[in-house]
User: Fold this.
Amino acid sequence: MKKPLTLLFLLVSQVLLGQVCSIDATQTQVGIYPDSMPNGVVGQTYSQDLTFVMPLDTMGYNFTNFQIVSVALPVGLNWACNNSAANCNYNPQLTPNGCVHIFGIPLLAGTYNIDVTVLADLSILNGYPILFQLQMVVLPSTTSLTNNGFTTIGAPACAPALVQFVNNNPGFAFYNWDFGNGNFSNQEAPTPQYYQNPGTYLVAYNAYASLDTTTVFTLESLQINAMSNYGGGFPSFDNADSYFKLLQNGAVVYQSNLIGDQNPPVQWTLNVNLNPNSNYTIEIWEADDSYAEPYFGNDDYIGSHILNLNGCNACTAGNASINYSIAMQVILPTPQLTTIDTIVVYELPTTPIITYDSLSHTLSTPALGFAYQWYFNGSPIAGATAATYTIYQSGTYALVAINAQGCVAFSDPLQAVFCNPYTQMAQLSENNGTLIVSNSAQNASYSWYLDGQLLPNQQNNILIFQENGNYQCIVSDAFGCSDTTNLLLIEVGLNTNTTEQPRIFPNPAIDLVTISVPIDWLDVQLEISDLLGKVVYKSQLHTQKNTIHLPELLSGNYLIRLSTPELLYRELIFVSAAH
Assistant:
């Protein structure tokens, strides 16, 4: 059963690996493909595969393994390799190809350098670091909201927000906008709206095809105050039986109910719509025959009144006195299209406050559950997305906090100084009678020393020498960090001394310094003195490599002097006190 199980494992592994990323088999040259990342957009899902084509050998030595150890990405993105089961190790002798899947939702716009760190093993060397860089641009969010009335550009958004409204129905006669922020507009294309505070805002939109209004007249009540001459000329032994008719252009359009056996005043509550372009007449009647009183004859016509749309009180209608009221209502046009939607404005994260620990060279901010991105001199630092960051160079740092809605808050910039005591960058060399300091910081200042003594009025990176001696230069950058060059022995009229000389490192030093001397310098006398000539340390060196634990020295420049009866070497070092 061993072989079938092994085959099943391989098949399952291939299926699982295939789900992570796809290798671009068309690429055969050593490198990473694509060589630049497609653009991402804040708040939108990002997915991209990277294919690696790894070399088989270099300088005659075979590569035995590559391990992808990190991919520094913009905040919000993650990565996975197609060989995660083997901790992203690849043997190029078996297959030179591998891939990485970049995925997630980018949270912050900017231009980023994607750093891919790979450890390479050769047949003669293990763990050699290789850094690949690709560029990626994350574009700002293009969020919008669309409905049948309008489209917004810039919403949902973070407070304060400026939102643009696009009318989806141009050409209507009239518009009415209520933006929910206290502002209104009747424009077809309204100006962008400002939303100062976070919250949910209700936006109402109405589009009208016509501005025509409709005026409606309604006969609401009629009262007979008094009437006479009814009952067919007979004495009125019964009470009146009243009703009325409403005629429109001579035709009866309404007849009231009959109020029987009740003398005026009598009243009707009505809801009869009137056409202002027609003529109306009110006729007052008293019922006889229609009220089952045929012995009084036919119904009695009391009189008529031409209706006035303004209404009337105590108006005459033949032998009757009447009141009636007419209501007038102007009906505004009905919108052809009505839309109500919401604008959501999100709250900003808490503004990050950053501090710098100069001893550990660490920047930090309280971890409040946000995503973070550190910046150096205005540019995002690839992979620096934690609440702390250890710096390796001086400059201006800032931090951006991003909440779950993608809203950002920027810290105040902070200048952090990092002086590396273990790295000597500036180099001193001689060319045709001129000493030159190379590989120094920009905008640096220079202090030249001859045999440990400061040379006045020499502040440039070049020096034309005039006499014998040991020359050295202290280079200070704009942040106050000092770098001391190598010591160079000059003999005027002769070439630069190229005899093997002692080596002193690190320079600058903190708690110890190593002095390496050639074999012919054994038993050399060592003296360390300050720039005033006071000897602060003295011993004899009996081995080629010597580690000197510095005494309790104050920070400053010191001259190291190595001497034998035949040889002399001097070098200026800078000591940064650790206490």
About this structure: The radius of gyration is 49 Å.
